[in-house]
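Retro notes (design track)

What went well: tokenization of the new backbones is finally stable.
What didn't: we kept losing track of which sequence belonged to which structure.
Fix going forward: every design gets posted as structure first, then sequence, in one message. First example under the new rule, 231 residues:
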């Protein structure tokens, strides 16, 4: 279903997986990866957004470390590799690459000019920073790791942001959640949903903590949010 395109930056080129909807022109959504690269889970999410009518694109944000990472969460060796990538990743450069992705897909013949973003895990942090640092029209953050250290950036938020937080997230402890909620719950651009009893990556199909009902609930809220904000 998907295709590969190249995105240019001052530092070089990287690839992105693109899935196109049936419509000739549509809003676009940038899908921001977890720590496992542009893997089957991310491609399935991208394809799913295209099926819902969006021009969806998932950029390879690990290209500066190792292009083409495509691993799963199913083995200890892959988890080890994923955390090595996470620890080597330059968040600021990653946000710039997301901005380059937004610019590229906004200029695509199939885009109507509106661009949203949705990110998971590491991508959840990047989705938050996409909302504060880029010209994306809307962003959705799933269980973003490290947002509590960057809540001051919320003063730059001028576009809508939807946040999904897992109450028992092993990578976002209760104290971190409290910081996020205190800083953002009354922000006019921010909508937050907390999923009680859920652990990190509750929406990752096939993952250890996948919860079908709450994944569907969060997915429905995400689609409604995009329909409201980018069409």
């Amino acid at each position: 279903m998907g295709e590969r395109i190249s995105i240019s930056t001052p530092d070089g080129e990287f690839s992105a997986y693109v899935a196109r909807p049936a419509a000739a022109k549509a809003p676009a959504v940038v899908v921001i990866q977890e720590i496992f690269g542009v893997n089957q889970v991310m491609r399935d999410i991208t394809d799913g957004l295209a099926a819902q009518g969006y021009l969806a694109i998932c950029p390879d944000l690990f290209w500066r470390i190792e292009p083409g990472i495509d691993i799963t969460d199913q083995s200890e060796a892959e988890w080890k590799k994923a955390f090595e990538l996470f620890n080597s990743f330059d968040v600021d450069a990653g946000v710039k690459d997301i901005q380059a992705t937004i610019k590229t897909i906004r200029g695509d013949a199939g885009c109507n000019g509106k661009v949203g973003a949705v990110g998971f895990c590491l991508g959840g942090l990047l989705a938050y920073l996409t909302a504060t640092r880029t010209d994306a029209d809307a962003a959705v953050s799933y269980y973003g790791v490290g947002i509590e250290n960057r809540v001051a950036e919320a003063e730059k938020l001028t576009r809508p942001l939807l946040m999904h937080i897992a109450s028992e997230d092993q990578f976002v402890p209760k104290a971190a959640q409290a910081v996020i909620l205190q800083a953002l719950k009354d922000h006019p651009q921010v909508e937050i949903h907390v999923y009680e009893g859920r652990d990190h990556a509750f929406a990752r199909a096939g993952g250890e903590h996948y919860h079908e009902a709450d994944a569907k609930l969060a997915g429905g809220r995400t689609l409604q949010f995009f329909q409201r904000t980018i069409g």
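Added context from the reviewer: The domain at 3-229 is CATH 3.40.50.1820 (Rossmann fold).
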